[in-house]
Amino acid sequence: MHLLLLVLGVWLTGCTPYQATLTNEERPYPATVPEKVQIFLQGETTPTATEIGHIVVAEKSEMKGIELLQRKAAEMGADGVVNVEIKIQTRVVFIIIIPIPIHSYFVSGTAIKIAK
């Protein structure tokens, strides 16, 4: 039983996974400030821009996922992230006979450099 709780604890507090795929590797951009990275949800009007790359992050809440998305986009030199999509995955873990739902939020989008 203790081993099960230890494994569950490590799994719940593990590192936050993310994936960034550069689509414009030949033009690296200097890092930007995460708080200034604009978020454009799917269907919103977006400015004219150059695509830098695609980012997918997983977090324990929607807000943390968006913040991590902004940080990763800023590291790529992006001014914004377009087509931001949020998906929720729910798993149920049973501790003895008690079901405990665990939610993961997957936030994805395309990092862009806005034309000036």
Compact overview of the structure:
The chain has helices at 2-12, 62-76; strands spanning 18-22, 38-41, 49-59, 80-95, 98-114.
Characterise the protein shown here.
By secondary structure, this protein is of the alpha+beta class. Strands 1-3-5-4-2 form a 5-stranded mixed β-sheet, covered by helices on one side. Mean pLDDT is 81; it is low at 1-15. It starts with a helix and ends with a strand. The longest helix is centred in the middle third of the chain and has 15 residues, at 62-76. The chain has helices at residues 2-12, 62-76, and strands spanning 18-22, 38-41, 49-59, 80-95, 98-114. The chain has a single domain (17-114), classed as Translation Initiation Factor IF3 (2-Layer Sandwich), CATH 3.30.110.
Architecture blueprint of SSEs:
Elements: H1 2-12, E1 18-22, E2 38-41, E3 49-59, H2 62-76, E4 80-95, E5 98-114
Parallel strand pairs: 2-4
Antiparallel strand pairs: 1-3, 3-5, 4-5
Pick out its properties:
116 residues; alpha+beta; Translation Initiation Factor IF3; 5-stranded mixed sheet; 2 helices; 22% helix; 46% strand; elongated
Number-wise, the strands total: 5
Sheet/helix structural class: alpha+beta
Q: Using only CA atoms, what is the Rg?
A: 17 Å
Strand percent estimate: over 45%
When the domains are counted, the total is 1
Mean pLDDT, to the nearest integer, reads 81
**Per CATH, what is the topology?**
Translation Initiation Factor IF3
Poorly predicted segments = 1-15
Helix tally equals 2
- Main β-sheet description: 5 strands, mixed
- Order of SSEs: HEEEHEE
Taken from the alpha-carbon principal axes, the silhouette is elongated
Widest beta sheet: strand line-up: 1-3-5-4-2
Fraction of helical residues: 10-25%
- Name the CATH architecture: 2-Layer Sandwich
What's the level 1 CATH class? Alpha Beta
Gap between N and C termini: 59 Å
